[in-house]
Amino acid sequence: MERDARFLVDLLRDRHPVVHELGQHYLVDTSVLNAAIELAGDISNQHILEIGCGPGSLTHHLLHAGARVSAIEIDEGSLEHMQRHFNEEIESEQLTLFAGDALTVKWPENIDAIVANIPYQISSPLLERMQREVRAIPAVLLVQDEFADRMAMSIPPLDRGPLGLSLWLDYDIEIGRRVPPSCFSPQPRVTSRLIRLEPINRLISLNSKVDRRMFRQVISQCFSDRRRKLRNLLKRAPRRLSRISGWHRDRWQGAIHSLQDHTLMDERPDMLEPEDWLILCAQITSFET
Asked: Residue 198 forms beta bridges with which residues?
């Protein structure tokens, strides 16, 4: 029997009600699925991780493109559906299913890329896990439109913030096709966007020795109030500073005092370019008690 996105979604929804708490909005527009595959590039013979396979509409396109797919799914109804309708690919090991929460279950090894229509409520923690564990591999994700703008910092200075600056350390971000609610079943209340994350290690490319945790803590602290100047925002040590080896409140106070004449200290957070944050954090990190 010929498979297509609408057919797979209808089969799943006929047997299992949508679980709204899991953010289940299934792609039924074949052109969007094709656009996701095109954005991923040549994935033939690659090992692709799919997060939240649902009815298998994206899975089908990944397999058709010649990929070997490992799919993580938390919903028992969706897993049962996948086992029933993708039995041949499962038996040939072109498709492997993993039951569990994508934020906590162990991810398969030797992944070449991630391609996924992710539940929007786990977007931020999922990106954090990607940066922590697999930041050297590319990813194509379908996310909420406004979230994509923040990821890419596409409308500066409005979209500059901790999310985009953290991702900037590890990825070049390409914004792809906008996806309206009508492309899903059931329809979400928001517009979505395809986005590609291409790995790039800016700490290496810019010859920076800044600690990633220091970078993120400084940015988080500063963007807690965009209206204030850095010299006021940095007076207080970050709450989790002690988690960085060698750092404590006294060393922080000394580092910030040594920066009082630095021109960046009179700027507001959203006025700084990404490279400026590396300069600032390098100056803080270099301070010795």
From this structure: 172
